[in-house]
Amino acid sequence: MSTKPALAYNDVEKGTLDLHSPQLANLAKDEKKEADIEVFAVQSLKKDAPVTPSNVAKPPPAPAKAKHSTPLWVLWIIWYNSYRRFFTVVFTVNFIGLGFAIAGKWPYAAKYPGALVVGNLNVSVLVRNEIFGRCLYLFVNTFFAKWTPLYFRLGCTSTLQHLGGIHSGCAISGVAWIILMVVHQFKQKYLFNDSILAFGVITTLVLFVTICAGLPWVRNTHHNVFERNHRFFGWTSLCMTWIYTIVTNAYDTADGKFDHIGRYVVQQQAFWYTIGMSTFIVLPWICTRHVKVDIELPSPKVAVLRFERGMQQGLLARISRSAVKEYHAFGIISEGTHAKYHYLICGVQGDFTKSLVNNPPRRIWTRELKVAGVSNTSTLYKRGIRICTGTGLGAALSTCIQSPYWYLIWIGSDQEKTFGPTISGLIHRHVGPERLLLWDSKLRGGRPPTMKILKEVYEYWQAEVVFITSNYVGNFEIQHGCKEAGIPAFGTLWDFVSDPPEFSR
Asked: For strand 328-334 and strand 341-347, is the pairing parallel, antiparallel, or unpaired?
């Protein structure tokens, strides 16, 4: 055990130190030693990589799969997560307001219906804005890291991960309010110009199509349809909202003319809400650039993209061959903000990723302002475990590279051959064998006893939290297993599948 003082959390996690296989620092006296761990000996990716202790047994064969039924309380707690709780609160508050408005018990709703429409849409767009998200993550990571109670930090991570519930709730509520507004105008159509009624119907229909294009079933089973329709109908919705807001406020029902001057329109709440919404939508697109990219093809299954400049851990990059269509998000691997490059692991699954292998581009569109992912909150915790499968390593590796207090478990098949020397080199240079478990399912003959391993690593490493990046089946197994075991865990958000999987423990 090293007697050197522990590295400062902030310097390490900001990527300002160059780490080379850091050793454990200042573990508690009663912590297990490495030799006491019987299940998960470190297996090298390369023959010349750091060897494991000589007394470690050969890799055990994978156990036979056994069905395991998850308790109903676990299924409920994980299903009714913070996303759905946020959605429930937003949806309920708005529909109570709708009830009062329909009953004529809320004068504000009768006087400013447009403000309630655009106000909801404004919040919906805001919580999905990259700049707003980065500011939230920065605030939480700066002021609440390490010293606050664990339950509070876990709540912060859960809140940041599930802001989409507010996005969905406000978007649906905004459409509900505009439907009420248009219906009210049609009931009194003798007071309104036909153009107002027409624009009201068109705006409502376009907003409705935008929401339908963003439904979980469309997002997860027809991603390109979601990208194209949600984006382009979204832009159309913004234009129609501007037109509808202006003509509605410029029209004077007293004399039936559009004689309200510009100053009157600018003074309305709906006008400024629309200004805010437009700003939040446009800002991320200002950061879009056509940048140089080098692509390594270690195997037909994977493309490793290399970009210039280093990044802090826990960020996602959105890339596309087009400036405005089909942006795809991938986890960023980087040695820190001081590094010369950062990398993306793109597994070949759809048309876009296949094109990266079959026709590698020299330049690609990306947003210079990166998206903060759940891993960005790893700085909140004193020690943690990052478990991933396959290409999920792309979202996990930076956390373990930039902080010596995170343990990496990577489950994959023929990892060195599939992912190539660049990725394995980053692992061996920066993640010491005392905090690394590589499970090669091809070498070991199948999947590992995931929860058995994870429980032992959790106790050995004295972790506070587990972050999971896997496919639906892997995420389902690990997240439900952690909940049963009382281990705090955050997994990939999979909010729609056609059939729940059977899984083994």
From this structure: antiparallel
Q: Give me the pLDDT at residue 328, please.
A: 87
Domain count for the chain, please give it. Answer: 3
Buried b (16+ CB within 10 A) or exposed e, 403-417: bbbbbbbbbbbebbe
Instruction: Quote the tokens at residue 306.
Output: 């290399």
Phi-psi domain of 110 (left: phi exceeds 0; alpha: psi -120 through 50; beta: other)? alpha
Give tens-digit pLDDT for 67-92: 567 788 888 888 899 999 999 999 99
Residue 140, in any domain of the structure: no
418 plus 481 within the same structural domain = yes
Cα separations (Å) of 3 from 7, 19, 57, 241?
A: 12, 17, 29, 64
Using CA atoms, how far apart are residues 435 and 166, in angstroms rounded to an integer?
A: 37
* Domain that residue 439 falls in: 11-70+373-490
- The secondary structure element, H or E, covering residue 402 is helix 393-402
- Using one digit for the tens of pLDDT, what is the confidence trace for 168-199? 999 999 999 999 999 999 998 888 899 999 99
Q: Within the chain, how many helices (H) and strands (E) appear? A: 19, 13
- Domain holding 339: CATH number? 2.40.30.10
Residue found by looking up tokens 């596309």 in the block: 320
Distance CA 369, CA 286 (A): 9
- pLDDT tops 90 at residue 322: no
How open is the CA angle 159-163-164, to the nearest 5 degrees?
Answer: 145
Q: What residues have CB less than 8 Å from 432, skipping those under 6 apart?
A: 21, 22, 23, 50, 404
pLDDT value at residue 162: 94
CA–CA dist 163, 82 (Å, integer):
8
Instruction: Identify the burial level of 462 via C-beta atoms within 10 angstroms of its C-beta, where 0-12 means exposed, 13-18 middle and 19 or more buried.
Output: middle
221 and 248 share a domain?
yes
Dihedral sign for Cα 251, 257, 258, 261, please.
negative
For residue 320, is it left (φ>0), alpha (ψ between -120 and 50) or beta?
beta
Task: Write out pLDDT tens, residues 399-447.
Answer: 999 999 999 999 998 888 999 999 999 999 999 999 999 999 888 878 8
Query: Could you give the CA distance from residue 350 to residue 365 in angstroms, rounded to a whole number?
Result: 18
Helix-helix angle 415-430:393-402, to 10 degrees: 20
R_g of the chain computed on alpha carbons: 26
The count of C-alpha atoms lying within 13 angstroms of the C-alpha of 235, restricted to the half-sphere facing its C-beta, is 9
